[in-house]
Amino acid sequence: MLIATAKIIFLKINENSSNDDGLEARNTLRPAFDFGEDLLFSGTIKNDSSLQKYLYEKEYVVKVEFPTIEDEAYEAIKPLIKIDMDLNIQTGSKIIGKAKLLDYAYEN
After folding, report:
1. What's the pLDDT at 50?
2. 74 φ, ψ (degrees, to nearest 5)
3. Range 2-106 classified under CATH 2.40.30.10
């Protein structure tokens, strides 16, 4: 499994919603991360339990676990992974945030 440390920021997509200021951090967030070359992998965003909400347009440093990046998938993606690379955070084809890769490790 690939485990990454990333700086993330969620974009405010719906400008019409005045009472919606962020995403619930207590819920499991598992959006897709775009590694380029049409390679999207879902990643579980982990945070410390004290955080209740990811506010829009604010940066957070988090761990992201990619349970589907194992063995063959890791070999395919390994040449693309670079420290400080930028990734889009997506749900389907909609970009909901941005991430910058700070560090990563692969664990069997």
Report:
1. 84
2. -65, -40
3. yes
